């Protein structure tokens, strides 16, 4: 009579060891070869994270970073079929487990979000823009934006600075726009003021510049001729940079 | 037909086709599905130029759990969109307890595992409405075996009706690491089910261990095993895999040319018949 565990249990024991390092004994499995698998898998996961998060990795002491990757892989059941999406799960896990506090890196989730967004925007599926024409009234015509973008908000200016001490001194409200150039596929980064971030968000919802300016006082913003001119100048610049495609026909 | 694995590192060269000109390309759907932008444009350019075969990485048909139906739907649609001629996967698993491990893990060579895997393969073949060519993986340890590797493979093939992807380098590596005779092993396989061959390089890292790296040129003994192997089977597509330490394109082309010459020499009778 066969008293050994069935294959399912053997596979669970084998993979649990590979993920966590918890000791196991499986008939026929040589310990050094088991160690080879565990090393190879961890190396692949770590390499994936370091390719995705080069700034984060360089910003965190080596031991702490290794501990993060090991903890993530051991405790989180990775669901991504596509390896390039695995870093998103790392970022999500870090946020869900309050790693900013746990590892005393208050800007960690901002930094991971920033680095992940570049990968996401670069790889995201093509999105067809709405129909547009090249000319129109900047204030009164709804604008057509490049749909391949992400607007991020941060507590720390991780898009401008990598040094811990400097980052911690600049806690506040920071905004970054990432968009993908249609022809080259390159990702462009634009730091935005809170006002321009608000404008971008409203324009994406189909609101006109005129309506945004009319609403601004309700947010405590004083609309001046200069603010209006600067807003339009920003949009003109973003048209040159292929974030604003044009005007709704 | 001798093809080459399509990689981003030499995508431009393959699209231009001046330094390297495989008969077909192969890539993993996982690396290319649901993406847009620059790499989607490159993918479209390369599939316009070459016939496409696909080699899956994460179906994990040996897993205890059911295949992911959402992912399978994506795969089916991807294979149809790119008119993929052969879709292959692995006689292994890479996911357990619903966690992916991103490596090809050795199946326990046991009857319950063989039956389980065959049932999964049948289910996926039915859904995709095409046969799968299942690759015999390289592995570094057996896991509580109760039958031989060849018996395990025969059982899976017979029960599922799948085809085989014969990775000759894997068999060479396994024969070395587990101390068996590669030709005797191949002779025990259902060779009439071989639909596809892979060739790649390896590295010996210890007196008793070779790693299947895909990072070195094909070794001479693997060419010799390939030459012997293809005498046992009817002509099928042959792929050169090179994933790391990418050499000059001329060097890759030289490997393609050598593989082609061997195929031509050993299969010329079939070519005349055809």
TrEMBL record, chain A:
The lineage of its organism: Bacteria, Pseudomonadati, Bacteroidota, Chitinophagia, Chitinophagales. The keyword DNA-binding applies. Residues 146-238 form the NGO1945-like C-terminal domain. It comes from Chitinophaga eiseniae. Pfam families: DUF2063, NGO1945_C. Keywords: DNA-binding. Signal peptide: none annotated. This is Putative DNA-binding domain-containing protein. Residues 10-93 form the Putative DNA-binding domain. GO terms for molecular function: DNA binding.
TrEMBL record, chain B:
Coiled coil: none annotated. It comes from the Bacteria. It comes from Chitinophaga eiseniae. NCBIfam families: PRK05409.1. The lineage of its organism: Bacteria, Pseudomonadati, Bacteroidota, Chitinophagia, Chitinophagales. This is Uncharacterized protein. InterPro entries: MbnB/TglH/ChrH, Xyl_isomerase-like_sf. PANTHER family: UPF0276 PROTEIN HI_1600. It holds the Pfam family MbnB_TglH_ChrH.
